[in-house]
Amino acid sequence: MLDLAFLGVGSAFCPQLGNTAAVFQRAGTLYLLDCGSLVFASLLRHHLPEQADSIVVLLTHTHADHAGSLGTLISWCKHVRPLPIHVVHPEESPGELLRLSGITPEQYILHSGMTYADDHVRVQFFHVPHTQAINAYSMLISDGEESVYYSGDAGDIPETVWQGFLKGNVARVYQDVSLHGKKGGSHGEYAWFAEHCPRPFKSRFYPIHLDEACRARALADGFARPTVLDECDTQLSADG
Ligand SMILES: [Zn+2]
Question: How far, in Å, are 8, 71, 203 from residue 227 at the CA level?
Fold first, then answer.
């Protein structure tokens, strides 16, 4: 089961909800979906890199709240606990970002192209509307048992993915939504998904990249609540 655990679900200007990013693990490999400015600290807080034999970073785009601590994570994998780290993105642009950050190509393995596969997962990227300045991509991740969709920042969801979700072929959708979003704009339009997502499917639709107002609205409307690791800690300390 591809059960994503989120390090944060916040939008760029809502750091109190963390940077939107998620992890899952397969046989010693830590898969990280996006690596924003706040993510490296969160990874260490949960001792995730320390437990990994290798790391695969699946990157949606290079905005700072999605790629801002990628260089630090790669440096950590060289200087603190040497382990291979793969960076997966349709374009080679992360290489340029890392070069300007002082990270040389031999410190990581870059995989470009619209698909990626290893022993555990297959990933299909989709070009999605977000900003004119850089390209942004979403991804469908499959482990042979099920497929889940992670949007990163996306003003819309690919029609094939949406139809796949409604037919039950896509187990869960994790989608960027905003109360101010417009379909086809920078971020997903909350009202569109609230109207078009049938009620039985709302329990498998996880709004992400949120501000506080949108999060409260989504929960009130019956959408699913992603597992967020820092909230688990807060709950544990509150219970303890
Ligand atoms: Zn962005």
Answer: 9, 26, 13
Alpha-carbon span 9 to 16, nearest angstrom: 9
pTM for this one?
0.95
* pLDDT tops 90 at residue 137: yes
Q: How far is the CA of 63 from the centre of ligand 1 (A)?
A: 5
> Cβ distance 7 to 73 under 8 Å?
no
For residue 240, the CA-to-ligand 1 centroid distance in Å is 37
Residue 61 CA, ligand 1 centroid: distance in Å: 7
Which pair of structure tokens corresponds to residue 223?
């959408």
Question: How far is the centre of ligand 1, averaged over its atoms, from the C-alpha of 131 (Å)?
Answer: 7
How far, in Å, are 119, 137, 148, 157, 182 from residue 161 at the CA level? 23, 13, 10, 7, 19
Q: In this predicted structure, what is the pLDDT of residue 110? A: 98
Q: How far is the CA of 158 from the centre of ligand 1 (A)?
A: 17
pLDDT band per the 50, 70, 90 thresholds, residue 51: very high
To the nearest whole percent, how much of the chain has pLDDT over 70?
A: 96
Average pLDDT over residues 169-188: 96
Under a CB-based contact definition with an 8 Å cutoff, are residues 218 and 226 in contact? Answer: no
Domains of the chain: residue spans and CATH: 5-232 (3.60.15.10)
Percentage of the chain lying above the pLDDT 90 cut? 95
155 close to 126: Cβ distance less than 8 angstroms: no
Distance in Å, CA 43 to ligand 1 centroid: 20
Given a cut of 70, whether residue 240 has pLDDT beyond it is no
Run of H or E residues at 217: helix 212-220
